[in-house]
Amino acid sequence: IISKILQRSDKLIYHRILLGMSLYDLIQSVALFLGSWPIPKNTPHMYGAAGNAATCSAQGFFFVIGHAVPLYNSFLSIHYVLKVRYRFSEERMRKIEGPIHASIFAFVTAGATACVATGSINPAQGAWCWLASTPNVCGGGAVICERGRLAWLFRWVLSFTSLTGSMIVVTISMIVLYNTVKGIEINSERYAGAHLVMGQRRLKKSRKVAKQGLFYVA
Fold first, then answer.
1. Gap between the Cα atoms of 187 and 104, Å rounded
2. 115-170: pLDDT as tens digits
3. Sign (positive/negative) of CA torsion 165, 171, 177, 183?
4. What residues contact residue 190 under an 8 Å CB cut-off, 6+ apart?
């Protein structure tokens, strides 16, 4: 996807959104590919751990950066709504494109930096360095956290803003798109005397949009 978009001479905003999403997805995929290697060596119950605190923090940093992917997914769905529902031109879209790219970059970079600075990235119960405390079960007065006392807070913020928030934005966007296409189709059928068309053939395009929207949300 990245190479094909870069080769295009007629890049639209749609292509640049896909490019941004793909780049952040690539960053997160590399962190995922490294597996348990960045985890500090001699960490109990972590097979293949060969890194140190710095490599562990780096892997978790790139995992957090990867939360830009669902944010770009939201950006893409909003782009569809603005183009279809509100008839935004490419020139008008460019006025908001830059600030949205910058906001996504600033949010994930600041979030990832804060996670590293507060020691919230540690070996998690799995095969990666992620937002976790050390020891994994601590806090509440029973066990004192050596690191990652705020890890739970960062997990909640990231889950709500990038994952849950993106799902809400995408779902609402697909509903708006469906209603818009359905309204256009009904008006077109009335104008063309489509009341004579058999019921199963009516609203074909809006049903197609609804089906594609379900796949997009899923």
1. 38
2. 999 999 999 877 899 999 988 877 666 788 889 989 999 999 988 888 899 999 99
3. negative
4. none
Residue 80 dihedral angles phi and psi, to the nearest 5°? -60, -45
pTM for the model stands at: 0.84
Q: What is the separation, in whole angstroms, between the first and last Cα of the chain?
A: 21
d(CA 144, CA 10): 57
Q: Which amino acid is present at 215?
A: F
DSSP sequence for 58-69: HHHHHHHHTTHH
Structure tokens at 34: 């490294």
**Residue whose entry in the numeric block shows the structure tokens 């929207």:** 213
Backbone angle region of 12, left / alpha / beta, with phi > 0 → left and psi within -120 to 50 → alpha = beta
